[in-house]
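Usage

Read records sequentially. Each one opens with the input sequence:
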Amino acid sequence: MLEVPRAEFGVNVDLERSAETGRDCFINFRNYANYTLNASGLVDANGRNIENTSSEILNAVGFTYDACLSQCGSGLQKPTWINTSQQFGAWLLPYLALISQLPFGARHRVDNLMSAILTVGSPVLAGYSMILTILNARWISRQFEIVSFPNAKHAVRILISLQQTPLKITNENSLLSSLIVLPENDDWWPTIADCLDYTLTWSIASATSIAWVIVAYLLTVISSLSDMNANLNSNGQGTGSVWLWLIPIVIGWLQLSPKCDYVRIKRAMENADAMAFVATHYGVVKASDISERRAISIDFTLEQHSSPDENLTPPIYNYARAIPWSRSAEDVFDAFRMASNNSRIHRPVRMGSMWKNAGGRDIIEPSNRSGTPSEVNAYCRLPRYGIRNPWASGIFLRMFLASLLPIALQWATTGAAVLVVYYTPATGLGCRSLGYIIYGVLATMVWAMLVASSIISHYTYSNSGRSSWSPFFSIAMHLAKVLSNLLRWGGKLLATVNAVWVVTASMLQFADVYDNCYCNSSVLGRGVQHAYDIVVTDNLDLGLTKTAWWGALALACSTSLGFIFLMSLLTDLVPT
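and closes with the structure output:
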């Protein structure tokens, strides 16, 4: 067999390796194999070895990983700016612009930035906070359906509107029972309900942003499916699929219209607080004459919260507020329920008095709702001090149900991206598919860590006032608090890393950084011995790849549409 200098075909000199593309390298290697009639290292479309005949060698479309590595080297291909910019502008840029339509409203810009990072770093967490917000609103709305007492409907609206705040309830100095029972407070409830009755929903900017993303996604998908050979390995359909979750998340928040503007909510509460009255042994006086505490408050300074994330109004932090909010909302409901039950049996607040019903109307007269602090407390059965269950009824079931749909959305879009690159020749687990899997796994881990942190922190906060702790229990509570903080800090750090990673992974694909022997040969899935790189795809049968791409499109789009549809169904009991 004749020895031909391998450098002649550009496969042995490092300088030539860096200058030529992977396709040029393969063509040189195939020509050399045809010259020597040595097909070792060449494969067909299915990764099978080629016979040592000229016709078979010239029909080879790829080579083994070892052959690719020895002939072309392990270096990266030089990225082309035109392809990178086109792919970035078509697949990724519209999604990055859509992030601006997420609800924010925090006092500090850094908290708004962190909410965006958490959303991108963990779509599961964003969807979980959204669904749990809706389920909590539906739960408290249904609870109040059995209540027949003045201002009950306003109370539901107020409680639902305050889900984005660190809601605190207290009956110290008979504040809550007075707020519910006394007729002097009949102006407080509708005033604050009206002040919180604002919507931040669809606008021209939000509708245009969503339309831009949808149209860009559909046009680029159609383009990629019509010409699959163009930029097969750097195609952005996987990127478009892995980001598709952002559309239903943004639409869902627009439908829900959360009240997360800190300044506006704070102003509404302060204006209404001047109208609150409380029963005392000297008669009814303004609550502001007694102390700065209020029955229903969102004070960010006087109260120490179970988690610092409760103070942050962007709605993604509802994961941290949902448990304490549910407990506080149920306290208000219990007080209204007991007052309603007493009014149904015509029992006035003042002991020994007769129920007054002027004209036989089915209306609770103001005279039936006045009394001393102990009498209004007894009417709502609210003791000044007491030990209660720290968990609201059904909270864990709602948390479980709120987890299902976001996890499905996360893994449907991530799975669609994995399908796209997994079935792109050479098929199998490679750098691109592993990058998407890492994103999905880290996003799920962030959600699990932060939700676990919220549960532990609420439990330790609920038991912080106990004076009968044993030394062992005190140590256990301290360790639990440390664990909660570590989970919260670790979850946010992991979300930041994951947000940077999903953008970086997309850019690596667009810039052809993955276009090397190791990634193109799917070594991760096939192993070094069985890995191969398909280079020539001009006349290749891409039927399986096309089917996988269509399947990925159907999976991501159907799940996203299903998420939006279920959101529309669930928001029927949620005032917006």
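Summary fields computed downstream for this record:
- The chain has 22 helices and seven strands.
- The longest strand covers residues 277-280.
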